[in-house]
Amino acid sequence: MMDKATRTEDRESNRRFYVLDGFRGIAAIIVVLFHYLGPDNYAFLSNSYIAVDLFFVLSGFVIYHSYADRVRSGMKGGRFINLRFSRLAPTVAVGVFLGAGATLAHYAATGREVDMSRFLLAHAGHLLFIPDLVDYHVPQTGIYELFPSNGPLWSIFFEFVASVCFIWFARIPRKGLWLYSLLSFAVLLAGCYYVMLTTGRALSPGVGFSPATFYLGFPRVFGAFFAGMAIYALTQEGRQPIIHSSPLLQSSALTLAVYTLISAVLLFPDPLSGIYPFLAIIAFCPALIALGGILAPEARWLRASSDYLGQLSFPLYCVHEPVRVLVTTHFSNMSWSLQILLAFGLAMAFSAFVLLVFDWLRVRQNLSAILKPVTG
Q: How far apart are CA 215 and CA 220, in angstroms?
């Protein structure tokens, strides 16, 4: 969901969605705050995990924009998968290797043993977005996640599944997209309610990241992904963008106000008995994405900063957790607040470095060329 290759633009289209790029960057930073500071320490982060659902809606919107016409015109499935894998895999690989190194460093520092054969096999699977079935008891989380050495990668797995399914989703009529979205969200709500009744955990759509709720990750991502597709079909297809006739929608002040609003949605401190997160992912986030999709700020500084935030979001999402583990492992004598500041600064700097190197080496394009004989 989020690097330069996945930013919200179609190379064959002049239409850019700068505000949605900004949404990605804001959501990625809030995810970092959620993992670094923790909702137990700061109540305003209690619902920030729904930033992942915002990513899912954005992905549906952007992939529909970039590929719907081409898929309907006969793009081969292998070619489509090639493009999607090439966009995501290089940055995910950085996260996998960094997560493996951070975990081994932590184990070495704490004197814990590692079954290297299982460890290497699991991480080889992670390079292909395959979740793990081995519990490493990763110290930084204390729970068994699908990607134990770099927990946030779980959402990349589900996003990749949804994007591959787009080969079939692209042919669904517009009204059908809304129906499938609502049905998926209904299944998600029912599943989360069942989990609440059987486990005693609070009602929450924060599912899919661990084996216990793995299968609920599918209605979670599909509901949001269909919503993103439906929003694009409703607001962008078959009409001239209304930004050309509305100076208000080109206003920098309005864009900044919408950025403030999306931040407020992701930083709302009260779950309201579990109802608020569902309202946010089913209504608030899709509505703001619909609005963000028709905004086009004229100010160059705002377009440039939004674009860069969008580019930075994916590497930041993939590397921030291993960076935190490395910092807490090697700077354990440092105060907690300084550890957080150092980890955040390093994660931002390393993400920018990854962007620069990938762009310079044309990593995505070269990987796509390598895969072409296999995928077509």
A: 9
280 residue type, one letter: A
| Cα–Cα distance for residue pair 344/321, rounded to 1 Å | 10
- What are the two backbone dihedrals, phi and then psi, of residue 146, each rounded to the nearest 5 degrees? -70, -30
Name 16's bridge partners: 9
* DSSP H or E run through 82: helix 77-110
Please list, in sequence order, all residues whose beta carbon lies within 8 angstroms of the beta carbon of residue 75, skipping any fewer than 6 positions away.
67
* CA distance linking residue 253 with residue 146, whole number of Å: 41
Q: What is the DSSP letter of 10?
A: -
3-state SS class at 16: strand
Pairwise CA distance, residues 281 & 286, whole Å? 7
Per-residue pLDDT of the chain (376 residues; tens, 9 = 90+): 544 444 443 443 457 899 999 999 999 999 999 999 999 999 999 999 999 999 999 999 999 999 999 999 999 999 999 999 999 999 999 999 999 999 999 889 988 877 788 888 889 999 999 998 666 554 444 556 889 899 999 999 999 999 999 999 999 998 899 999 999 999 999 999 999 999 888 999 999 998 889 999 999 999 999 999 999 999 988 655 555 557 888 899 999 999 999 999 999 999 999 999 999 999 999 999 999 999 999 999 999 999 999 999 999 999 999 999 999 999 999 999 999 999 999 999 999 999 999 999 999 999 999 999 998 7
Q: What whole-number distance in Å separates Cα of residue 324 and Cα of residue 263?
A: 23
On whether the CB atoms of residues 23 and 309 are closer than 8 A, the answer is no
Q: 247, 228, 330: which is closest to 23 by C-alpha?
A: 228
Give 272: exposed, middle or buried? Use CB within 10 Å, 0-12, 13-18, 19+.
exposed
How far CA 251 is from CA of 14, 21, 286, 308, in Å, comes to 20, 16, 21, 19
Q: Residues 310, 7: contact at Cβ < 8 Å?
A: yes
The neighbour count for residue 197, using CB atoms within 10 Å, is 10
| Cα distances (Å, whole numbers) of residue 188 to 3, 61, 95, 113, 184 | 28, 20, 28, 38, 6
Q: Is the pTM of this model over 0.90?
A: yes
Is 47 within 8 Å of 266 (Cβ atoms)?
A: yes
